[in-house]
Amino acid sequence: MSYRAAVALGSNLGDRIATLRVAIEQMSRLGMVEAVSSLYETAPVGGPEQDPYLNAVMVVDTDLSPGELLAALQTIENEAGRIRRERWGPRTLDLDIVTMLDSAGAPVLVESAVLTIPHPRAGQRRFMLEPLAEIWPQAPVGDVTAGDALGDVLNQEVELLGRQWTEAAGATPAILVGAQVVALAIFGVVVLATGSLPGAGWRTVTGVVVALGGIAVGLWAGGHLGGALTPSPNPRPGTRLVESGPYRWIRHPIYLGVCMSLVGAAVLFGSVAGLVLALALGVLFWFKAGYEESLLRLGVPGYPAYMRRVRGRLFPRSRPDS
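^ thats the sequence. predicted structure below, dont judge the formating
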């Protein structure tokens, strides 16, 4: 007999996004993957204080019985390093069967000491219902469908992180870093070719102050990032949210520092072409920072909420309610 099963995935320990991607790859060997939902971040429900969860739902057609599917999912959890110490505690990987249909399209009902289908709390948890309703709105969760049950839990907070998340970023981060290096090298050549060092005067003072100010901002920001500092837009595995130093006011102070240094150098050398190029590089950093944030939202716990608290990408911005 074949079954259609919806499996909820969750992780809030370690490299959450990598863990879920590996789990999806392993689960694809259990049958035919029909759909994978968008990725969401949610606050933990119950248990001790812990980091936010990444949550998603996968629908798979499988020949495994409910008991066999449960055993296979537990094996995947164990291979991900899950240790069951306490109920609702933090975990590297959590895989739950939310609901199942048999080959005739009838809901599968299981009630045992180790497995209950449908999941007994599926209809009460938005972090299960939101991704499930997205890809299988008619999925039965008790006496109602996922789509109908979702309307009763919209007061619970979930954060949509991304729709295309199952694959890693690929070559895009390296391309952006390479483009940045080339652009900075071109800037240096242009400034030296079109400008010259002045004597004492306002241009010297302004250029030096702005350039040194930018270097100071960059060093200040880099010091607060510590081991999380990387030229790549892709965050290092295990990166933690940083909200100290300049990150209290802007999300990408290093880029601001670089832009200030470039403008200061262009002013110091009196290079109009260099100043134009510095502004163009500022646009590049703006878009690179935006792309970087799409990866930070996936890879750093709590980053979406941080973006709401600190609204400035490169320059400080007040919150709407301030």
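The chain is about 45% helix and 15% strand.
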